[in-house]
Amino acid sequence: QPHLVESGGGLVQPGGSLRLSCVASGFTLDSYAVGWFRQAPGKEREGIQCMSTSGSISTVVDSVKGRFTVSRDNAKNAVYLQMDSLKPEDTAVYYCAASIRRGLTTVQAMCMTGKFNYWGQGTQVTVSS
Questions:
Q1: CB of 51 within 8 A of CB of 70?
Q2: What one-character-per-residue DSSP string does the chain give?
Q3: Which of 19, 20, 64, 89 has the fewest CB atoms below 10 angstroms from its CB?
Q4: Model pLDDT for residues 24-50, shown as the tens digit of each residue
Q5: Taking Cα atoms as reference points, which of 100, 114, 104 lies closest to residue 36?
Q6: What pLDDT is stored for residue 103 in this prediction?
Q7: Based on C-alpha coordinates, what's the Rg of the chain?
Q8: How many CA within 13 A on the CB side of residue 13?
């Protein structure tokens, strides 16, 4: 059974850093596009960054450019999100997702629409002093 488990969330002060991890089981990530999403209280879930199987990154939220970086380690069947210079507005539940890219669909489009097949349970990130 495909499964994704996130970890690494927590409470951090503004300006601090966190590294989220997402480990897959039941399938191998190297054939899947992967992505990170977040949902803040009272808001809809939004895509942040996604990565293709070739390593191409699509960032769909302008506010994280230059601060967040997605990466993958296929040997560990894992995906990561390095988050630097964190701001209170980054507070949210963060989710990783994985999906096969099909047809002409781009990873950027998948990231913007959230059309991924497999999702983790989420990890809370709170940025506060």
A1: yes
A2: --EEEEE--EEE-TT--EEEEEEEESS-GGGSEEEEEEE-TTS--EEEEEE-TT--EEE--GGGTTTEEEEEETTTTEEEEEE-S--GGG-EEEEEEEE---TT--HHHHHHHT--SEE---EEEEE--
A3: 89
A4: 999 999 999 999 999 999 999 999 999
A5: 114
A6: 84
A7: 14
A8: 1
pLDDT cut 70: percent of the chain above it: 100
For residue 48, give every residue at least 6 positions away whose Cβ sits within 8 Å of its Cβ, in sequence order, or none.
35, 36, 37, 38, 59, 60, 61, 64, 68, 70, 81, 94, 111
Which amino acid belongs to residue 78?
A
Cα(107)–Cα(56) distance, integer angstroms: 9
- Cβ 20 vs Cβ 90: under 8 Å: no
Query: Please, how many CA atoms are within 13 Å of residue 5, restricted to the half-sphere of its CB?
Result: 4
- C-alpha–C-alpha distance, residues 68 and 115, integer Å: 21
Do the Cβ atoms of 100 and 117 come closer than 8 Å? yes
